[in-house]
């Protein structure tokens, strides 16, 4: 069985087949039927030829367009799928493509905002500041003099991405059903999450909401700034927000880096992300150096909040435990916590998984040799999980991506920064914030509603229990112990206690009889008393022999 080559996807099938052939996976091309999409001119790696460099994969994905650029960025976090050289190459994948025409910019802005460009803005630069796979950014000035940037989505990009993802989903479903690799990595689920993430990025109204939400959540961090959106000038394809005066941290001159307090900036940025992930439950999933600016007043500006992920409270608790275990070098505990966060497959190798995780944590713990990279360790745990038959939730991948990019940013700001120390010092404050969050009015109201529901149901449940007791129908089912063995053990204990009491009584009785004068003597002492003493001694010896010999035999 092969995939059905739909005519509208033929070009993408060919692109994917060429990519597989070039990087040595001709077996997948033949098995899936993608070979039918190839023609005589399609490049094929010769058997036994030199495999291409990892950097070529990034270039190939850039040539294939926006969908594959975003897919490459996702794959850069999948240490369970790709070897380290490819991960590093894809991590540097540039989401930077040629700009589209200013005529398209005018048309999209005017169609979406319902107003002419010249009427909405005092100035609107025709040359974009930056151009990426999904859109491009232009600098402008509002009628009230407010400096802004306007982000405009590429024309017809949604339709292109929808077609690309449809072709990829068909291939992923086939690989999951017919290949061992697909069954291990569950490509269909990975692509489903990828599609959801892309669709959210394509709605700029979501990003505007993220800007407001993050500005509120991070208001206590005085060195972090989030641009404010202009809601009246924002739509699904147009986003207008404050212009931030500054430079990318990667573009800073080395001398300029010496002038700033990089350690303070790095610590506050790292703490801000810990709060996002572990307290707020919503975090910026793509803090790569290109999205982080140093402002003129030496603050950190976070830009491009299109890729955002959310996590549940229970997952946050386990993640905090995991980060603390990693920072303290407790490998076995880190493995146990990870197991609670995911799903076991039938072939899960728990002992090997625990050993491998312990090894990777131990290798990253000695801060005298190297700084601990939380993102790198989380990525390695993800790789180990896939190899050992264990499935981690999609949130784990997004967190790994965020932490990996964050490591690059903080080390750019402060090469000697120690995230390990910040995690340990900030843990107690995180716990306090989580407790305060649970006491928020909304959470209290939810708890009160649960109590109300419990109280409403309580009378009927109590009546049912009392009726069952009155009719002698109440049953307690406990299947935790062997009742027969338990009763035998209790009977044995009772018999020995009884024998012990009898022996003690005989000794006390013999002691009292020693004071009674009698003509019957044994060894110069009252005879009856001596008989009781001897009988008690014999019984004690017999009981001791039974305990030692019989119990030892029973255990064997």
Provide mean pLDDT, rounded.
81
The end-to-end span amounts to 58 Å
Number of strands: 15
Q: Would you tell me the structural class of the helices and strands?
A: alpha+beta
In short, what is this structure?
By secondary structure, this protein is an alpha+beta fold.
Structure description:
- The protein has 556 residues and is an alpha+beta fold.
- The protein folds into 4 domains: 98-131 and 134-212 and 229-243, no CATH class; 244-439, no CATH class; 441-475; 483-555.
- 60% of the residues lie in helices and 9% in strands.
- It contains 22 helices and 15 strands.
- It has helices spanning 10-22, 26-32, 54-64, 66-75, 84-91, 102-113, 117-120, 157-178, 180-185, 187-201, 204-217, 254-259, 262-280, 313-328, 331-341, 350-365, 374-387, 394-413, 419-438, 441-470, 483-513, 527-555; strands at residues 121-124, 130-131, 135-142, 147-153, 224-225, 238-242, 246-248, 282-284, 292-295, 300-302, 308-310, 343-344, 390-391, 521-522, 525-526.
- The strands form 5 sheets. Strands 1, 2, 3, 4 and 6 form a 5-stranded antiparallel beta sheet that branches.
- The mean pLDDT is 81.
Characteristic key phrases:
22 helices; 4-stranded mixed β-sheet; 9% strand; 15 strands; 4 domains; alpha+beta; 556 residues
């Amino acid at each position: 069985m092969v995939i059905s080559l739909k005519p509208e996807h033929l070009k993408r099938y060919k692109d994917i087949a060429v990519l597989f052939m070039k990087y040595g996976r001709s077996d997948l091309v033949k098995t899936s039927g993608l070979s039918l999409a190839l023609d005589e001119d399609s490049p094929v790696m010769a058997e036994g030829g030199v495999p291409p460099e990892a950097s070529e994969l990034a270039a190939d994905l850039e040539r294939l367009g926006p969908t594959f650029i975003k897919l490459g960025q996702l794959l850069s976090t999948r240490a369970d799928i790709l070897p380290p050289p490819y991960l590093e190459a894809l991590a540097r994948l540039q989401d930077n493509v040629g700009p589209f025409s200013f005529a398209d910019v005018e048309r999209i802005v005017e169609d979406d905002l319902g107003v002419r460009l010249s009427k909405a803005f005092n100035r609107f630069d025709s040359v974009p500041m930056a151009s990426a796979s999904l859109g491009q950014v232009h600098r402008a000035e509002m009628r009230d003099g407010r400096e802004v940037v306007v982000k405009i989505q590429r024309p017809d990009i949604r339709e292109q991405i929808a077609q690309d993802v449809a072709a990829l989903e068909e291939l992923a479903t086939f690989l999951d059903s017919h290949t061992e690799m697909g069954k291990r990595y569950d490509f269909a689920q990975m692509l489903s999450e990828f599609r959801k993430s892309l669709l959210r990025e394509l709605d700029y109204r979501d990003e505007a909401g993220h800007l407001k939400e993050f500005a509120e959540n991070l208001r206590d961090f005085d060195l972090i700034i989030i641009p404010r959106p202009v809601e009246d000038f924002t739509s699904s394809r147009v986003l207008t927000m404050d212009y931030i005066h500054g430079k990318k941290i990667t573009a800073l001159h080395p001398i300029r880096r010496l002038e700033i307090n990089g350690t303070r900036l790095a610590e506050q940025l790292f703490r801000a992300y810990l709060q996002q992930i572990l307290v707020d439950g919503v975090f910026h999933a793509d803090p790569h150096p290109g999205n982080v600016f140093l402002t003129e007043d030496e603050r950190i500006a976070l830009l491009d909040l299109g890729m955002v992920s959310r996590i549940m409270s229970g997952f946050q608790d386990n993640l905090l435990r995991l980060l603390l275990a990693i920072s303290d070098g407790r490998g076995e505990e880190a493995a146990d916590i990870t197991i609670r966060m995911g799903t076991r497959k039938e072939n899960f190798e728990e002992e090997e998984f625990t050993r491998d995780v312990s090894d990777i944590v131990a290798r990253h713990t000695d801060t005298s040799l190297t700084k601990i990279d939380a993102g790198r360790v989380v990525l390695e745990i993800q790789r180990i999980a896939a190899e050992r038959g264990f499935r981690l939730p999609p949130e784990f991948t997004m967190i790994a991506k965020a932490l990996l990019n964050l490591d690059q940013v903080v080390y750019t700001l402060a090469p000697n920064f120690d995230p390990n120390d910040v995690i340990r010092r900030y843990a107690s404050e995180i716990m306090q914030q989580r407790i305060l969050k649970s006491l928020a009015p909304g959470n209290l109201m939810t708890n009160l509603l649960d109590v109300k529901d419990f109280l409403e149901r309580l009378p009927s449940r109590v009546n049912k229990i009392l009726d069952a007791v009155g009719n002698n129908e109440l049953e307690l089912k406990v299947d935790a112990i062997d009742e027969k063995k338990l009763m035998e053990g209790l009977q044995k204990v009772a018999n020995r206690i009884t024998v012990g009491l009898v022996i003690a009584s005989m000794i006390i009785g013999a002691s009292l009889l020693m004071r009674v004068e009698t003509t019957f003597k044994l060894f110069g002492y009252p005879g009856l008393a001596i008989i009781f003493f001897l009988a008690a001694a014999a019984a004690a010896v017999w009981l001791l022999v039974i305990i030692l010999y019989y119990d030892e035999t029973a255990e064997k």
